[in-house]
Write a structure and sequence with these properties.
The chain has 10 helices and 12 strands. By secondary structure, it is of the alpha/beta class. The structure holds NADP nicotinamide-adenine-dinucleotide phosphate (NAP).
């Protein structure tokens, strides 16, 4: 292999929460990777993509996104440039160099009004700017003609970065009482489990859409109670309604992603309580 041959895996948005899980997975499996984030790569710029993604790249893992869900309401055009048109540009570049694009989307592309898990091909109906912009990205990816794996996920957590688990450990450790919403139902997802399962889908799956989350389901309140229990925190966590905590972006009431397609390829998804216990045994201190 010459010095100019690119590493097989290129991680885009490499400073984010999920990208770190990918790095650790690839390292553990002895697979070569390069990681780029802004300013080395900007997925809204075709010129930047042409410079940063060389011929010979085999897999591009897109962890880059405008992920501030409430911020998207106020800055929908900026979010659309990244989550929508940026994904389209990235897909075009991947097609041009013959790379597979592994891309992430969200439960927010669905309406959240169902009462059974959403299959991968369920009708879309985003209720927020974040969901709308991510759906544009999905549509441009599918139209691009590149070899892709579109992976929807939800409620991500990891031992690092800003996420619900680390926030709840901190809050339930210092407060006597806390209210957490109990009328939104979904599936938590360990970023490490997501990276490992994504790698399997990249290697053994076919082009198309997949859902990857932990197994089981819960409300944010149930999630918080289990986090506090594992942490040994005695805070009284009371259930409340979404209406008690108005936010700029509407949250889905029911956003359980159906796992049948993924489980038929990769086997059963581990239960969220097992993944949570594993992650909480390795929680990092705030930096
Ligand atoms: N977190 C969740 O609960 C969740 C749930 C469902 C789906 N997802 C999806 O999962 C994926 C990974 O999420 P995450 O939580 O790991 O994200 P994250 O931690 O917010 O990381 C996103 C990264 O993308 C970078 N980025 C933003 N705009 C960019 C651009 N134009 N070009 C290149 N890089 C750019 C960000 O850099 P800056 O810091 O400079 O902005 C950041 O390093 C995303 O597609 C997200 O939509 C996440």
């Amino acid at each position: 292999m010459s010095d100019t041959t690119p590493q097989p895996y290129l991680l885009v948005g490499a400073n984010g929460m999920l990208a770190r899980a990918w790095k650790e997975r690839l390292e553990a499996d002895g697979l070569g990777w390069t990681g780029l984030d802004r300013p080395e790569i900007d997925i809204t710029s075709e010129q930047s993509l042409a410079q940063a993604i060389p011929q010979g790249t085999r897999y591009v893992v897109n962890c880059a996104a405008f992920t501030d869900v409430d911020g998207c309401e106020e800055h929908e055009d900026a979010a659309l440039a990244v989550n929508g048109f940026g994904v389209g540009k990235l897909a075009e570049r991947c097609k041009a160099v013959g790379a597979m694009l592994i891309h992430y989307s969200t439960d927010y592309v669905f309406s959240g009004e169902a009462n059974a898990p959403y299959p991968v091909d369920a009708d879309k109906g985003p209720q927020s700017a974040y969901g709308r912009t991510k759906l544009v990205g999905e549509e441009l990816l599918a139209k691009s003609g590149c070899d892709y794996r579109l992976i929807r996920t939800s409620w991500l957590y990891a031992p690092w970065a800003n996420n619900f688990v680390r926030t709840m450990v901190r809050l339930t450790g210092k407060l006597d009482e806390l209210k957490v919403v109990d009328d939104q139902r979904g599936r938590p997802t360990s970023a490490e489990h997501l990276a490992a399962c994504s790698l399997r889908i990249a290697q053994d799956g076919e082009t198309g859409a997949y859902h990857v989350t932990d197994g089981g389901e819960c409300t944010w309140h149930g999630f918080a109670v289990e986090i506090a229990r594992i942490a040994g925190n005695t805070c009284d966590i009371a259930p409340c309604t979404t209406d008690e905590f108005p936010r700029p972006a509407k949250r889905p009431t029911y956003s359980v992603l159906g796992l049948e397609k993924t489980e038929s390829l990769a086997g059963p998804m581990p239960d969220w309580k097992d993944n949570l216990a594993d992650v909480m045994a390795r929680l990092e201190e705030d930096s």
